[in-house]
Write a structure and sequence with these properties.
Blueprint lengths: L2 H7 L8 H23 L13 H18 L14 H43 L9 H16 L3 H14 L10 H10 L3
Length: about 190
């Protein structure tokens, strides 16, 4: 649905910002879609003997989680066009912003983990250079495994929220109804994928 189509469906505004809210939903969902597309590009295809290596396990987990977030049902109470006042539409748009923000948050976290695992895979490939794994690779591969673990630990909820806030602010987006980190995390807990 385009911004113009969404705006035509909005009722008279309770506070004058329902069109901005509708646009915000589109902005957030565009981010979500872009993240999902990038995650889909990362298909793990390890040699059979490396299937259970940590980085490849992370990649498979990321793909499964991304699929779950993508296919998670939209809450039924949010899927109907409001038939009441502009105030009802405001409340519904605010709840949709929370749902969209939670999905975008989850996709970003998955994406960052997938990027870390791809970096690990590339490092591993560089170390092995097509050779069969032998004792001489052990120290370097252990360093790569440790780097992956450190990178995964650095992917925090606060980091993700801050990155979105900075990018959205720089883009000049209307952020008045964007949910807090705690609201996003509570929404995720109460709406498991």
């Amino acid at each position: 649905m385009s911004y113009q189509q969404l705006c035509k469906k909005t009722k008279p505004m309770a506070d004058g910002f329902n069109e901005a809210r509708a646009l915000r939903v589109l902005e957030i969902m565009n981010d979500f879609q872009a993240l999902q597309q990038r995650i889909a590009e990362y298909a793990p295809n390890p040699p059979p003997e490396e299937y259970f290596e940590e980085g490849y396990q992370v990649l498979r987990q990321c793909r499964a989680e991304a699929h779950a977030v993508l296919t998670a049902p939209f809450p039924l109470d949010l899927s109907q066009v409001p038939s009441g006042s502009g105030e009802q539409e405001k409340l519904q748009l605010q709840r949709i912003i929370i749902d969209a923000s939670a999905r975008r948050f989850q996709a970003k976290k998955i994406y960052l983990r997938a990027v870390a695992a791809i970096r690990w895979s590339n490092t591993r490939h560089t170390i092995l250079q097509g050779e069969t794994l032998h004792q001489g690779h052990t120290a370097q591969l252990q360093q790569a495994d440790n780097a992956l673990r450190n990178e995964l630990v650095a992917i925090t909820d606060a980091r993700i929220v801050n990155e979105f806030q900075q990018a959205d602010t720089q883009a000049g987006f209307w952020l008045q109804d964007d949910p807090s980190r705690n609201t996003i995390l509570e929404w995720i807990r109460s709406h498991p994928a």
